[in-house]
Amino acid sequence: MAEHCCDMMRAHVENVCDQHTDRFECPDCLIHHSKVRDSYGLIIHDGGTSVMTISYCPWCATKLPNGLD
Ligand SMILES: [Zn+2]
Ligand SMILES: [Zn+2]
Q1: What is the per-residue pLDDT for 40?
Q2: Taking the alpha carbons of 41, 12, 16, 68 in that order, is the dihedral positive or negative?
């Protein structure tokens, strides 16, 4: 299981609702964590799988891995 910076981040990253099997289709899923790139992003609900990479946790302000280092 991946380590996350805080409980809020973990809750959002691991949140899966029972109405949407695809997290990108769920308006309640805000944060996507890419295990491949080890980066975090805000899910942009435009019907696709767009993610806006974020560099800092919005809750605890921890610097996040962005997959570029
Ligand atoms: Zn955090
Ligand atoms: Zn949902």
Answers
A1: 96
A2: positive
Count: domains in the chain = 1
Contacts of 4 (CB under 8 A, 6+ apart): 10, 13, 33
Given a cut of 80, whether residue 69 has pLDDT beyond it is no
DSSP structural state of residue 52? E
- 57 lies in which domain range? 1-69
For residues 8 and 60, is the Cβ–Cβ distance under 8 A? yes
Please state the rounded mean pLDDT for residues 21-29.
92
Instruction: Note residues around ion ligand 1 (Cβ under 5 angstroms).
Output: 5-6, 9, 57, 59-60, 62
Please tell me the distance between residue 56's alpha carbon and the centre of ligand 1 in angstroms.
8
